[in-house]
Amino acid sequence: MITSLGIRDFVLIERLDLNLAAGLTVLTGETGAGKSILIDSLALVLGERGDSQVVRAGAAQATIIAEFDCGPNHPVRDILTKNDIPIGDSLILRRIIASDGRSRAAVNDQAVTVAVLREVGATLTEILGQFDGQGLLNPASHRGLVDVFGGNRDRLLHCRLAYEQWQRLSKELSDKTAAAAAARQREESDRAALIELTTLAPQKGEEDELLLRRSRLMQHDKIAATLQQVSGEISGDKGAEGQINRAIRALSKFAPSAESPFVALSDSLERAAQELNESLAQLERLATDIDPTDGGLELVEDRLHSLRSMARKHDRAVVELPDYWQELQARIDGLEGGGENLKKLETAVTAAGEEFHRAVQNLRQARKAAALKLDEAINRELKPLKLERAIFATRIDALPPSDWNGGGGDAVQFEVATNVGMPAGPLHKVASGGELSRMMLALSLVLTDSKPVDSLVFDEVDSGVGGATADAIGERLARLASQRQVLSVTHSPQVAARGQHHWRVEKTEDQGRTVTNITHLSNPERIEEIARMLSGAQITAEARAAATKLLGL
């Protein structure tokens, strides 16, 4: 809902601030006072195109600021999140047009493109009967409106899910078919490479182990001398082993029984002797391991050469060979069982396509049924609005299957024939200005639960009508305003009297300049304004009495 509108240096308006409320707000005033300028300023801040001509003469720029109250579940919040725009308790749109034609826009004080501003504005307010291609006049919105009106949510969800399943399986089939074809093309080379790798049998981490072993083998002399020295220090009579053994024999003379204080010391030396024996055994194993006499270094070099040659041949690192070996094995295995898998996938794709086709047909039937009810409801509203010759019809055309998607396979468009015998056509191309505004009123009334916006604006929806028709328009605007905020520019006293909030627009001169002002009217002021609308410049007592009666005061 629009809570405030601030206008600076826009056309004839120098400075204007409006606080707006829920319900029906009417704007009245003499012809040419500037009522439609307010609508134009609101359209601009909602994302419509603007140029330097809207800047008041002598001003550097025109500025429009609109504030909206949006609930926690309002669809505009998704747009704000998508564009990283901060979300607060209220939403503020700002549009600036400079005198050189440059335009700037902001949402919650964050600069945005006009396209983003228009996307945000489309969820907040709709200006009925203007700006071709927007809101109800935009055929792209008609299918969604019919679906909401017809309660097709579950059918639409089923159609979308069926489409996504069909698309997913179709892509999987396409990818696997292409992969199978590519695998068949390289089958001969893959099988040859698999035989080579199976013969070579590369192991994970093997290269690092071979490099370490080669390093040890290449340092054989130095390592062997060191091992011999260590072994000599440990073994023999002069080594640690002999000395420990002599110490054990010496202690044994003083340890004839378990109570001897030398038993623990003797046991400790025994353990040391055992550790030395194990160390000697390890030294012998190391000496054997690096012994070049068994061809160890040559074998390591040959293995490294084989691994690296194979890696170069297949343009891979040695470390990647084990995984490549498994990959080749999997590809060959896939060729042998892939045909059956592809047949199963083809069957699944066919079944998913048939399910999607049924979902499209079911949705189409539901749309046709909803369209008949919608047409009937709207046509009932047309006669009281002096559109008794007009016939509204919802046109549903089946799209070619290549154009079907998650939204179904239909093109939906609202059409109208305004005279008997004339062909139906799109609303904005067939209906005149006054007819179009009243048609939009009927559409809005019937589709009020289907429209996401909280605010509706009508610019002279009562143009060219009076009496019972004007009263019917006022009654319908008031009914619509029980569920939406409605703003209506009007010349009709019957419509003005229905307003819960009444603003008068006036054009005055100030220091040689023409300016537009707006005033919120009290009940006595409303009587005078509606009396003026009834009788003209000369307000009579009868006009005041009629105005009082219309207002129910």
What does this structure look like?
This protein is 54% helix and 18% strand. By secondary structure, the chain is an alpha/beta fold. The chain has a domain at 187-335. The strands form three sheets. The protein has a six-stranded antiparallel sheet with strand order 2-1-4-5-6-7. The chain is elongated. The two termini are 28 Å apart.
List the helices and strands and how they pair.
Blueprint: E1 2-10, E2 13-19, E3 24-28, H1 35-45, E4 61-69, H2 76-82, E5 90-98, E6 103-107, E7 110-112, H3 114-122, E8 125-128, H4 139-149, H5 153-185, H6 187-200, H7 206-218, H8 220-234, H9 240-252, H10 263-289, H11 296-313, H12 321-382, E9 391-398, E10 410-417, E11 425-426, H13 427-430, H14 433-446, E12 455-459, H15 467-481, E13 485-489, H16 493-498, E14 501-510, E15 513-520, H17 523-535, H18 541-551
Parallel strand pairs: 3-13, 3-14, 8-12, 12-13
Antiparallel strand pairs: 1-2, 1-4, 4-5, 5-6, 6-7, 9-10, 10-11, 14-15
Helix pairs in contact: 4-12, 5-12, 6-12, 7-11, 8-10, 9-10, 12-14, 14-15, 17-18
